[in-house]
Each structure stands twice: as structure tokens, then as C-alpha cells.
Design goal:
With about 425 residues, the chain is α/β, with parallel strands linked by helices. It folds into 2 domains: about 1-25 and about 275-420, LarA, C-terminal domain (2-enoyl-CoA Hydratase, Chain A, domain 1, Alpha-Beta Complex), CATH 3.90.226.30; about 40-270, LarA, N-terminal domain (Rossmann fold, 3-Layer(aba) Sandwich), CATH 3.40.50.11440. Helices cover about 35% and strands about 25% of the residues. It contains 16 helices and 20 strands. The chain has helices spanning about 40-50, 55-60, 80-95, 115-120, 120-125, 155-160, 195-200, 200-205, 220-230, 255-270, 295-305, 325-330, 335-345, 355-365, 380-385, 395-405; strands at about 1-10, 10-15, 20-25, 65-70, 100-105, 130, 140-145, 150-155, 165-170, 175, 180, 235-240, 245-255, 270, 280-285, 310-315, 370-375, 390, 410-415, 420. The strands form 6 sheets. The protein has a 6-stranded parallel sheet, sandwiched between helices. Strands 6-5-4-9-12-13 form a 6-stranded mixed sheet, with helices on both faces. A two-stranded antiparallel sheet has the order 1-2. Strand 7 and strand 8 form a beta hairpin. The longest helix has 15 residues, at about 80-95.
Length: about 425
């Protein structure tokens, strides 16, 4: 019997798989990577050697209003480490700079003060000006232009009015934007609901290029890049993280050049050849990304690549914060897969429902694969109403999967489905 630790909330669950059933355990090489330098040193090294731009301290000279866009509570950006160093770098160049930290929420709920303290540290929350993006507050946004897709680009006015716009985030494979980080801080991060919804329209999500690891011809990525360039993001900072959410690499400088350098670094360590199994078990990497069902298709999409035509997928996701979004919860529980698909396919881009992209991706997967959600926080009846199955323990879920696929079913385990880029050659 093989025991595999599956990330779950702020700890792990022990998965037990008989050796005769276990076809593969797929992990990214990034989890084994050793940087040879401490986290703060890696951050400073990147800032000392920016790609394609002057140092941030040089860019800050003479700039009065500085906006630094950072991620919200759903992302594992180690801002307790990065923000103090970034703020010092700005003030080394301009001690009088008026700095605002703008939390990029996209369509997510506002980040609470307690979550801010956990993310940034009490000193930053106490002493810095922090603004939380609210995608539904129309008065907070200004219209800039139309994006290549035809979507209206409305961005937070603080970003439009500042003298120096900076972003920070982290890079990992992303199941429809190719990779996270960089330009995503602007779109969807600090855009209006209207803009985010159009960027995540049925048509955009349905593109064969809107998938993990793909940037070229990806319509979602192209809109994101256009938006960030239009806002004149002068400096971007991104990190790479291991399974323990520790910094193992950092990339700073030009919006495009530094982000692409980070994406290629991540690709080299994350890309894996898929192994097909009758049952595929994965997780969303634990907290914070497993806090709701809305975020969980990130890992489910990775598992699907290994699940053949009709394999059972098991996702370990605590869902401690519930379903994740009102629109998502209402839509995904609104009927059968066929009824939901018919409704989504008829929605034009400019009428996109908030969070419908997530339902669309789940629907696409559920048409082929039974999906078992492992959670002891979210109501199992609600999960079943969303056309999924539910279990309280990963081994209980495995037994359910054996009942569907047979006791001799092959099992593939991807402990952290978010960190793995499964690509068929």
C-alpha cells in the first residue's frame, strides 16, 4: 500500500492506494527545486537585476502618485516578504512618493482586514494606504478603450490616474490564461465586472488556445496583455513558489519580458508527460486556492488530461469558504449539464454572467468524467445539486471511484494539480 499526502486546507490528507492499482504519481520538478538562496535574497537579486527596465528605484524618481497592485486572499503571493522590499525600493528612489497598495480582486469578494494582516503583515496594514478593488462599484472605474476581442476596457481609476503603476504576483500554469502573473494583475485584477466578464466569455473560454501553458493565439491572454500595456505598467514583479509556498525564483522588470522569462522558467519545471488512469486524484494545492469550489477547476483541468475518455476525477478541496461566488453557485446548481450548456452557449460576450466561465469549464469536464469533491466543509447535498459527487475523505472517494470503474482500475495521483502542466506531446 502506497501512502501519498494530498494537500488539503492548511494541512494534508493521507491517501492510501494499493501498489497494484497505482499507475503513476505525477509531481512537478518545481517541488524538488532548490534555489541556493533565501527568499528575501531572491527578491533583492531580481530587483537589483531587472529585465528590460531600469531599477524600480530609478523609475520612482519624480513620480508623485505610485500604485502597487497586489493579489487578494485567494492567491499565495508571499507579500509579507515581497511588499516591504518593494516599498523600500520605491522609497529609496523617492522618499516622498504617495503610494497606494491596490488589491486585485477580479470578481472575488473583498479581502478582509484580518486576511490583509495575514497576507501583508500588521505593519503594512497599519501604516500603508490600502484600497480593495470592487468590480461592481461602477464609480471606481474609467473607460479606457476597446480590447482586441471587442470587450470594453474599464479599469480602476487609481491605476489610470497614477504616475507609476507597478504589479506584483506569482507565476504558475493557468488553465485558460496559459500562465498566471504579470498582466493578470490588471485584467482581471483591477477591472470592472463588465470587462472581466467579457474577457471570460463563453466564446473566449471555448477557444482551443485558451488552455494551460498556451500564450500564443490565446484570446484571453491577448486581451490581458493589451490592457496592461494600455495602462503603461512600468514595472512588474513575480515570484515562483514551491509546494510549501516558498519563493524559489523571482523575476522583475518589463511587463512582457520579465513575465515571459518567468513563464518559461516555470514551464521547464512544471511540464509533465501525462499518464492515463481510470481514476485520477488531485488537489488544488491546499489553502488558499482550495478555499471554494469556484477555484477548484484549476486542478480538475489538469486531472482531465490524464483521465482518458471517461475516467473518474477526485479533487481534494476543503471549500472552507463555500461555493465561492453567488452567480457561480446559482448557475452551476440550476439544472442538468445539458440545460446549463444550452443556456451558456446562447449568451453573447457582452451579456456574460459573472463567473459563468467556471461553470462552463466544469460542464465541459463533467460531460465526460464523474467528479468527486472531497470536502468536510461544504454541504454534500449542494455538491450533488451541482452534478458532482461528494466525499468527506479521499479514501472514501477512492472507494466510490472503484465502484464506478472496478477494483482493478488504474489510479494516477497528481498531489498538486495546480503546479503541474500536463501536456500531451
Amino acid at each position: 500500500m502506497k501512502t501519498i499526502k494530498m494537500p488539503y486546507y492548511k494541512s494534508t490528507m493521507d491517501l492510501h492506494v494499493d501498489e497494484k492499482n497505482l499507475a503513476a504519481v505525477i509531481t512537478a520538478k518545481i517541488d524538488e527545486y532548490k534555489s541556493g538562496a533565501g527568499e528575501k535574497e531572491l527578491v533583492r537579486q531580481a530587483l537589483d537585476n531587472p529585465i528590460g527596465t531600469p531599477r524600480l528605484s530609478e523609475l520612482a524618481k519624480g513620480k508623485e502618485k505610485v500604485v502597487l497592485v497586489t493579489s487578494d486572499h485567494t492567491r499565495a503571493v508571499p507579500s509579507k516578504i515581497t511588499l516591504p522590499i518593494l516599498l523600500k525600493e520605491i522609497r529609496d528612489g523617492n522618499s516622498e512618493a504617495d503610494i497606494t497598495i491596490l488589491i486585485a480582486t477580479g470578481l472575488h469578494r473583498p479581502t478582509t482586514v484580518e486576511e490583509q494582516k495575514a497576507m501583508f503583515g500588521e505593519e503594512i496594514v497599519k501604516n500603508e494606504e490600502i484600497v480593495i478593488n470592487d468590480a461592481f462599484a461602477d464609480e471606481d472605474f474609467v473607460h479606457i478603450c476597446s480590447l482586441p476581442s471587442g470587450a470594453d476596457f474599464n479599469v480602476h481609476k487609481l491605476a489610470a490616474e497614477c504616475d507609476l503603476l507597478i504589479t506584483e504576483g506569482f507565476i504558475e500554469p493557468h488553465f485558460f490564461a496559459g500562465f498566471s502573473g504579470g498582466r493578470k494583475s490588471i485584467l482581471p485584477g483591477i477591472c470592472s465586472a463588465e470587462t472581466v466578464n467579457e474577457n471570460h466569455s463563453y466564446k473566449a473560454i471555448a477557444s482551443p488556445y485558451s488552455t494551460g501553458g498556451v500564450l500564443q493565439r490565446n484570446p484571453i491572454h491577448e486581451d490581458m496583455v493589451f490592457a496592461a500595456r494600455k495602462m503603461n505598467v512600468q514595472f512588474t514583479f513575480n515570484v515562483a513558489l514551491d509546494a510549501d509556498k516558498k519563493i524559489i525564483a523571482a523575476f522583475a522588470g518589463d511587463l512582457i519580458e520579465s513575465h515571459e522569462a518567468g513563464c518559461e522558467w516555470i514551464r521547464a519545471l512544471s511540464q509533465c508527460e501525462p499518464v492515463t488512469g481510470d481514476i485520477v486524484i488531485t488537489s488544488n494545492g491546499g489553502y488558499p486556492l482550495d478555499q471554494n469550489l469556484y477555484q477548484a477547476p484549476k486542478a480538475v483541468s489538469t486531472a482531465q488530461v490524464c483521465a482518458g475518455d471517461d475516467g473518474v476525477i477526485i479533487i481534494c478541496a476543503s471549500c472552507v469558504d463555500g461555493m465561492g461566488g453567488t452567480h457561480f453557485a446559482e448557475l452551476i446548481t440550476s439544472g442538468t449539464l445539458e440545460e446549463i450548456e444550452e443556456k451558456l452557449s446562447k449568451i453573447p460576450p457582452k451579456e456574460t454572467i459573472p463567473e459563468q466561465w467556471c461553470v462552463q469549464i466544469y460542464n465541459r469536464i463533467l460531460k465526460k468524467h464523474p467528479l468527486i469533491v472531497v470536502t468536510n466543509y461544504l454541504d454534500h447535498d449542494l455538491i450533488r445539486k451541482a452534478n458532482m459527487l461528494a466525499a468527506s475523505d479521499v479514501n472514501e472517494a477512492l472507494e466510490m471511484a472503484y465502484e464506478i470503474k472496478g477494483k482493478d482500475a488504474s489510479v494516477v495521483v497528481i498531489p498538486d494539480g495546480v503546479s503541474v502542466l500536463a501536456v500531451k506531446e
